[in-house]
Design brief:
Helix content: over 70%
Distance between the termini: 35 Å
Low-confidence stretches: 1-14
Number of domains: 1
Structural class: mainly alpha
Number of helices: 6
Strand content: under 5%
Keywords: Membrane, Transmembrane, Transmembrane helix
Shape: globular
Transmembrane segments: 28-50, 62-82, 89-120, 132-151, 163-186, 198-224
Order of helices and strands: HHHHHH
Largest sheet: none
């Protein structure tokens, strides 16, 4: 007579409820990331206009404020979702704001140097320059995501097992996100500020945020899986 297993199996309704909660979390995360990136892009546009009006000598101050504000927007947006699953993470907004500001400032200098050096290289064809810029943007995204992921890991590690994977997920997500942003920005056919650039800018911000949110959202669900099951 076959021996009956005494191992407790998850109830089907419990599994379906957990899956439903996972999808809900992922959808919220992707949506909030898209909105945060749209707002962040808007801050960047405003900062660019301010810099043009007050003079380039004040650009450093403006760029510091842009990085800080974008970090605060991103940190608050993510915290609004995370606080339902992870308690006592008030430091999340602070570390995110600081990390984004650091990544923004250094990344801005590196990207300017990269564009300058590649653009002035007479040995490169247009296709080679585009490919080189794409590679540069990808690794710039790895840097941005790595810095951000590491900063947020310092908060997550006290609450979540294997939180170091959050660093990897962010590095990959921001690398792909910035590549998408670079390709979409290249679709514009004018340098003037008009309806076309506004719509394309909004689409770029939303798409970039959605890409980053989709990848980090999967990682977040995997890291929070035990908590999602306990909430059933």
């Amino acid at each position: 007579m076959p021996r009956q297993s005494t191992e407790k199996q998850p109830h089907p309704s419990s599994q379906s409820l957990s899956l439903k909660k996972s999808w809900t979390l992922w959808e919220w995360w992707v949506g909030i990331m898209a909105i945060a990136q749209l707002i962040g892009l808007g801050i960047g546009f405003v900062a660019s206009a301010i810099t043009n009006s007050i003079g380039i000598e004040h650009a450093a101050t403006v760029f510091h404020l842009v990085g800080l504000l974008e970090g605060i927007v991103l940190g608050v947006a993510q915290w609004l979702v995370l606080r339902r699953y992870v308690k006592r993470i008030n430091a999340w907004v602070i570390v995110t704001a600081i990390a984004v500001m650091v990544a923004w400032l250094i990344g801005l200098k590196v990207s300017a140097l990269m564009i300058f050096s590649i653009g002035l290289d007479p040995t490169l064809t247009t296709a080679m320059k585009t490919r080189a810029l794409l590679q540069g943007v990808f690794f710039l995204g790895v840097w941005v995501g790595g810095v951000l992921g590491f900063a947020q890991w310092t908060v997550l590690k006290a609450h979540i097992h294997r939180a170091f994977l959050w660093i990897v997920a962010n590095a990959l997500a921001w690398a792909l996100g910035l590549v998408v942003a670079f390709m979409m920005v290249g679709m514009t056919h004018t340098d003037q500020f008009n309806l076309e650039t506004v719509l394309l800018g909004a689409a770029t911000g939303l798409t970039t945020g959605a890409v980053v949110g989709a990848i980090t959202g999967v990682a977040l669900i995997w890291l929070l899986k035990p908590r999602l099951l306990r909430r059933n």
